[in-house]
Amino acid sequence: MPLDARPCACSDAAPPCAVVERERIVVADDRAQAAGIVSGLRLASARARLPELVVQPRDPAQESAALTRLACSAGAFTSEVSLAPPATLLLEIACSLRFFGGVERLFAGIVQAATEQGLRVQAALAPTPLAAQWLAFAGGADAGFGTPASLDAAPLAHRLGVLPLARLALPAAQEKRLAAFGAGTLADVLRLPRAGLARRVGADFVADLARALGEIPDPRARFVFPEHFSQTLELPARSESALALAFAARRLIAALSGWLAARAAGIRECFLDLRCERTTGAPPALTLSLSFAEVTRDAQRIGRVLDERLARLQLPASVESLCLRATAPEPLAGREAALFAADGSSARGHAARGAGGATIAELIERLQARLGEHGVYRLAAHPEHRPENATQKNAPLARQDAQGTGVAQHGPRPLWLLPAPQALSEQGGRPQRGGPLHLLAGPERIESGWWDEGEPSAVGDVRRDYFIAVSQRCEWLWIFRSEAGWFLHGLFA
Amino acid sequence: MNAVPRLDDILTRADVWRGGVMATSVQPGLPTGFAELDAELPGGGWARGGLCELLPTRTGVGELSLLLPALARLSASELSWVVCVAPPHPLHAPALAQGGIALERLLIAGAPGRDAAWTCARALDTDGVGAVVAWLPGADATLLRRLHLAAEANRSLLFVFRPAACAAEASPAPLRLQLDGEGERLRVHILKRRGAACALPLSLAVPRPALLPAASLPAAMPACAQAAPTLSPSSPPPLSSLSSLPPSSHALARPVPAALAARRASLRLF
Fold first, then answer.
1. pLDDT of residue B235
2. Region entry Disordered: which residue ranges (chain B) (predicted)?
């Protein structure tokens, strides 16, 4: 059962605007329509009626990109998507009804997803693709033609009957012919004998009628989800604000998430190119790489990581367009719905969520996006005598081997280890830190590391005698003596 | 409509406590590992879900050792994550492993400045995080209250270290402990808890790396004869003579060729 969506290239900018092609208005927004600007009007007449009208030329490439983006985002609902250019998308949703909790819920979800893509849609629901297409052309649910939205075949003829022929986007010759019969609505046509109709209007029109009523099958070509995801979004106005960019990028992320769902895949990394205004000295594009701790296709999760990256970003110039790329999708098993979901239904997109909080992988990737790749880490004990090398920083969620060989044979170690040993003054042969230190245990000789002597950023050869000392202020310290004197190296916190 | 509840019924509720007696808690706390401290805390341990403010007078008095038993239990037995936010110095992994912490479930976030509180809030929103240990020297009461509510909602432990000077300020934390060293023990003064005030500071035997000699408290520092026998003020011995100490306390990671050892001994004298 298909569903129709008809994007119109309209924006909600303050002045009334319209799109023109060959000096004629193609589509006008609400305010322009209120002033009498209708499609088909000459540009000169439109200017006369509304001098402040903002006119944009029609851009077929951008329209088809919007349709592809919409098709990708529809992948979140069903894998059976077909395009009917220039501006129609058909979704087969019978297989998705149960998962999304019924027709009404699913229909509302699809309309909302399309609206979030920034498109105004006319959507309708019918048991056959052509019927849905006609219902949507006639205005969809908003115009009252689609209601009640149902997939029942029985009332279909009645629902189609009320549609005015003028709005079905029929070929001009057919429409003129039918108007000459005095037929105003589809019901008038259905009342006529089919054989005569075929002779006088054409066999194609009669076959279309039969397809719309479900009397003969109506196979449609499937939309092939592309192998690699790369979608560009032109911003309506140049922007420097991270908030505006994040909002615009949400559309691309929704499309990415739908594309991944349709391909049963997830990503570990994706790239967002910010194409900037051409200024001297600034690079034309800036690429943000968004990486995730595990394979994901959750749009909210991708969006959160992007927000953190954008908040940190210094833009060299205003951004004109965004391009989201994902080149290496990895297989990801089907969507998991929470067993005890809050609203009692398996809503879309809530993959692998617990009772309300995020998972530890989501935490890690968010922290990494904000604090930097090396700001978040795990520790591992490394069997090495030099204390500086006994702690290893590992990437979070990397697989850690069970350590422990060779580290058991040393004395007590402090919880804090200073990043660099601090020199202690010496008075009368005794190290000082707020008074003379009291040596309690030691020495523990550590003499090791001749192999990386002289290498950059290596600890090098050390020869140290470590002592446990307590200061007059009851600080427990780990100090050592080397050729250069006394040093504080750790605190027994 | 229900009848007006009686005062006695209200007073027996777990979330109502009277100033004179210690509060009871519906949920038993996480044992701290120190029986004296457990006896003085409502619920018999660290409250699961809530902020605990720790005010050490200086570093190195045993402030982290106080938390180690509870953190070890969380990460090793309960398999939950422990997140350390903005530690002031690098943590040393062998010591943490010795303390029983499962290092594979210890996450460290080096978050400077205002990011530290943000990191805490994100960690407290996360499933599977048992405890957050944070160093927030610049936190104000509003921020602490927000973090406390987040910890309560997620039922995870939140320990915040602040400078001891903050003890005089008001704080939304239900439990505030001032920590100070006392020889080889840790003196814990409970500044605030749910219920009656705790007049006397506790003295806890936190694990220490060495023993203090019986008669030597830092106030009167005698010569440390037994501990470092070769350290006499007049003649500090060369390192080569120190190497005659028992081999158990040495780490020597290489076979020293005889000629090289002799050359070093001749070159590297004090």
1. 39
2. 227-246
